[in-house]
Structures are given as structure tokens and as C-alpha cells.
Write a structure and sequence with these properties.
- By secondary structure, the chain is an alpha+beta fold.
- The chain has one domain (41-228): archaeoglobus fulgidus dsm 4304 fold.
- The protein is 28% helix and 25% strand.
- It is built from five helices and eight strands.
- An eight-stranded mixed sheet has the order 3-2-1-4-5-8-7-6, sandwiched between helices.
- Strand 7 (170-175) and strand 8 form a beta hairpin.
- Helix 2 (88-101) crosses helix 3 (125-133).
- It is globular, with a radius of gyration of 17 Å.
- The model has no long low-confidence stretch (mean pLDDT 94).
- Mg(2+) binds at residues 46, 113.
- The record marks 83 as: Interaction with target DNA.
- Its cofactor is Mg(2+).
- Keywords: Cytoplasm, DNA damage, DNA repair, Endonuclease, Hydrolase, Magnesium, Metal-binding, Nuclease.
Length: 229
Amino acid sequence: MAYYRPPGPPPDPVLVQSLTQQQQEMRLRVRAEPLAQEPRLIAGCDSSFPTPDTILSVFVVLKFPSLEVVEKVYNYGVVDMPYVPGFLSFREAPNVIHTFAKLENKPDIIMVDGHGIAHPRRMGIAAHLGVLLDMPTFGVAKQKLTGTFAEPGIERGNISPLTDAKTGELIGEVIRSKDKVLPLFVSPGHRCDQATATRLTLACLRGYKLPEPTRLADHWAEQFKKEVR
């Protein structure tokens, strides 16, 4: 996800308290479990902020394992919630859900450009969306948000664990998706486990740093921006 981080005064503490409580309640609903069967369709999801007050969200649905594109949709809308660090999911989720509703081909699992449980309160955008949609989801992020890890080997396919610095809990895996490029941070969201998230990420690599679902979602986000300018 491409986040807009505007300058300004500190967030309203009452709002922060409310959002924290909501995340804690949602966290209790997150389930880590393998898929019941191999996915037939996998979707990539990405959001960006063309202006400080607007958001464009994209879903690209692909056949699995061929990764042939089946459908792509977007929704462009106004962002009502202010920027609050650590709670970006609340800015994105409403528009992402509107975008998902436009799909004629519902995926079996969603790969989100962002984090799943690899979040300080275990509720990154992938987990957030998974709970709201009651869909299997996982996150593939380009940067670490929380946790500690040892750098994986420089060749494609090397993996190292991402763990909570205090508890040692496994919250994700760090994957070298292409030789000698910066790694990706993969974590389960909802109705998905780490093994599934990692396996599908690797299965969706086609020579680029990003796996095809989120790479294509990002690509089409740039194309769709031209339609709303």
C-alpha cells in the first residue's frame, strides 16, 4: 500500500483509544488456518492516495497457478478518516471493500500489498480486510513494520523468520523474491497460516521482486489513476 503521511498535529487521543479498542476486538476474530483446498482464483489488492483526501483501490483476480488475469476493478473515493500512525487500515478498508464488491469473480484468497499479523497489534491491512470480508488473506509488504529478523541469503527463495522482539512469536517470514534485491515481508492475515502465505508468495513469483497479484495490482493502480485525474 502507498501511504500518504501528511504533517500536522498529533492525533486525537480519544480517536486513538477508540481505534485501538476496535483493533483489539478484531484481533480476537483472526484465525490462522490452512486453506481447505488449493485456490482456483487468487486476487492482488493495492491502494494508493492520489491526493491527501482521496484513495484509489484495485483488485486484480488471477487464475492459480497459471496467473492468467481474469478480472481487474478499481474504486476511487474520498478518505474521511485522518492519518493516524499505526491505524492506516481504517483509512483504506472502506474503499477496498467497495472495490471488492465490484468483482464478478470472487477469489479464494487475497494477497494484500501490506502486512497481515506483522503489525504491533497484529492487525495490519491484510488481517483487517480478512476479518471484515471473512475471506482468507495474507500480506506481502516491501518494508518491515515491526519485529526482528536475520537477513536471508542473497539468492531467490531464501527465507528467514520474522519474530516479535519481546516474545519471540513468529509473526511473518522474510523472503528473498529475487537474487540480490531487498526482501519481502510475508505474514498471514485471516483464515490463512504462515506456510500458506509463504508458499503462495513463492508460487506467484515470475522474475520480478513482487509476486504477480500485487505487482499487477500496483501496475493497474497507476493506469487507473489516469482515468480519475
